[in-house]
Automatic annotation (TrEMBL):
Domain Tetrahydrofolate dehydrogenase/cyclohydrolase catalytic, first and last residues per copy: 5-118
Stretch forming the signal peptide: none
Protein function: Catalyzes the oxidation of 5,10-methylenetetrahydrofolate to 5,10-methenyltetrahydrofolate and then the hydrolysis of 5,10-methenyltetrahydrofolate to 10-formyltetrahydrofolate.
GO CC terms: cytosol
Keyword field: Amino-acid biosynthesis, Histidine biosynthesis, Hydrolase, Methionine biosynthesis, Multifunctional enzyme, NADP, One-carbon metabolism, Oxidoreductase, Purine biosynthesis
Pathway: One-carbon metabolism; tetrahydrofolate interconversion
GO molecular function, one term: methenyltetrahydrofolate cyclohydrolase activity
Protein name: Bifunctional protein FolD
Domain Tetrahydrofolate dehydrogenase/cyclohydrolase NAD(P)-binding: 137-277
Enzyme Commission number, as recorded: 1.5.1.5, 3.5.4.9
Similarity annotation: Belongs to the tetrahydrofolate dehydrogenase/cyclohydrolase family.
Catalytic activity: (6R)-5,10-methenyltetrahydrofolate + H2O = (6R)-10-formyltetrahydrofolate + H(+); (6R)-5,10-methylene-5,6,7,8-tetrahydrofolate + NADP(+) = (6R)-5,10-methenyltetrahydrofolate + NADPH
Transmembrane segments annotated in the record for this chain: none
Amino acid sequence: MAENLSGKALATAIRADVAERAAKLTASGVTPALAIVVATDDDGTLWYVRSIVKAAEKVGVRAVIHTVENPTVEAIAATLTELAADDGTHGIILQTPLPKGVSLTDLAHLIPAAKDIDGASPVSAGNLVIGTPAFAPATAEACLELLAHHGVPLSGKRAVVIGRSAVVGKPVAQLLLRADATVTVTHSRTVDLPAVARTAEVLVVAIGRADFVTAEHVAPGAVVIDVGTNTAADGSLVGDVEAASVDGVAGVLSPVPGGVGPVTTALLLRHAVAAAEGGF
């Protein structure tokens, strides 16, 4: 049975640090403030956003949901522009999914890098690639934080990323490279994907398909990070990895829920506080 790579203890530690830093800022007259721009009425998205607000309140970060009632590109852009100019707003998240016909790439450039706490803008992405200071996408960073917390070495290791999204796949590949891993990025059109995945000592799965990765994708003893969050037919949350299948092959496996997810939320709050402090 694979070792459980839980993120709960790490998330607790990050939140404790965030609360301490937020208290110091508030005592100095600066309350860390996070704006979450929402342009959808999707129930799952709204639940997630409200969970961020509750988590923020517990650590002393003021989080405000800005709902765009008429979610055209122009209306969303106007909200982002207003928040970008507001000195009292330290961090901005443009929550996805966005309405049909509206792309994150159409709008993310309106978030200044210093407030882009989820690494969505082209400037943040470029800085991540060349290694200059930037907020990395929180989910991608959570994968690396989780590995470090559990003492998983990356230098010289063969890492395979399944998924090439701008939100997780590409940035987690950059972060793995920065940690001196040798990285292969794969996707749905990779020829003989299971064989390529089996070359990994560290396998990060972020393809957005429930139970996509099975035992045939995993080398014996590999470290497997499951980034997926999918809703099963019975309403439960499942990952991109078929845990029951992989558990007997992998050496280490992050659970869903309880793995990358809680660390991601904690990192968003840490980024918000760092932005209020004036750094990355």
